[in-house]
Amino acid sequence: MSFFELIKTRRSIRAYAPRAVEPEKVDAILAAANAAPSAGNLQAYEILVVRDAAVRRDLVHAALGQEFLSQVPMVLVFFAHPDRSAAKYRQRGAGLYSVQDATIACAYAQLAATELGLGTVWVGAFDDAAVAKAVGAKPEWKPVAMLPIGYPAESPAATPRRNLNDLIHHHDQ
Question: Model pTM?
Answer without folding.
Answer: 0.96
